[in-house]
Write a structure and sequence with these properties.
By secondary structure, the chain is mainly beta. The protein is built from 1 helix and 13 strands. About 8% of the residues have low confidence.
Length: 217
């Protein structure tokens, strides 16, 4: 399917390739295919086992399972992603995401970004903060490794809760898995910390990611 510019797009698709022009608003359910679009104002996506390419999107809400997302320019992004990858060349406003085994790479975080929130597990996340002159990070993540050009201090923020699993049970499961992997020994390189850069009144970054590698450099 190929289209030119569309004001309002509603699409249900399986096993197809779709290429569109600019979209004003779109609601898409997409399974086992390749979806390509140019500039989008508002997009609501529910995707599985697909490849999604966007030139730019102002507001994106998505639910994704085992997909590859590649976005050149993103304003506000909110959603849930399990497995697969999310790549954003430039983020200009905010991102809020939860999931499992969902790797995220943002190449450029603009100085206009005001909020970053993740709840993830077993993921590699890259969030370069070099363009931000003022921000506060609250991080909670057992069995994680975090890289950043900031001083880590004792955790003062509120831990992001997973609504689907009791926290104590979740950490017990994680500890058991890690002990099994490490032959009965547990190692913790990162647990909880707070970091403030500048006056701390800029972007608010709240992340809970266990068994993750997070690179803020």
């Amino acid at each position: 399917l190929e289209t030119q510019d569309v004001n309002t797009l509603t699409l249900r698709s399986k096993y197809a390739n779709v290429n569109t022009g600019n979209l004003q608003t779109a609601e898409v359910e997409f399974i086992n295919g390749h979806f390509t679009t140019k500039d989008v104002d508002e997009m609501d996506m529910d995707t599985k086992y697909s490849t999604i390419d966007m030139a730019s999107v102002n507001k994106l809400h998505f639910v994704s399972t085992n997909d590859e997302y590649d976005i050149e320019n993103a304003g506000s992004v909110q959603g849930q992603k399990n497995y697969g990858n999310l790549r954003i060349s430039k983020l200009s406003k905010s991102i809020e995401m939860d999931g499992t085994n969902a790797d995220v790479k943002v190449r450029n975080i603009a100085a206009t970004v005001n909020a970053i929130q993740f709840y993830n597990k077993y993921a590699d996340i890259r969030l370069p903060l070099r363009s931000l002159k003022s921000y506060t990070i609250n991080y909670s993540g057992p069995y994680s490794t975090v890289y950043g050009n900031f001083e880590k201090k004792p955790f003062k923020g509120k831990t992001i809760k997973n609504p689907s699993l009791d926290e104590a049970l979740e950490e017990k499961i994680t500890r058991t898995i890690t002990q099994s992997i490490n032959g009965g020994e547990t190692t913790t390189s990162e647990d909880k910390f707070t970091a403030t850069v500048g006056d701390g009144k800029g972007a608010q970054i709240d992340i809970r990611c266990q068994n993750c590698t997070v690179d803020f450099k």
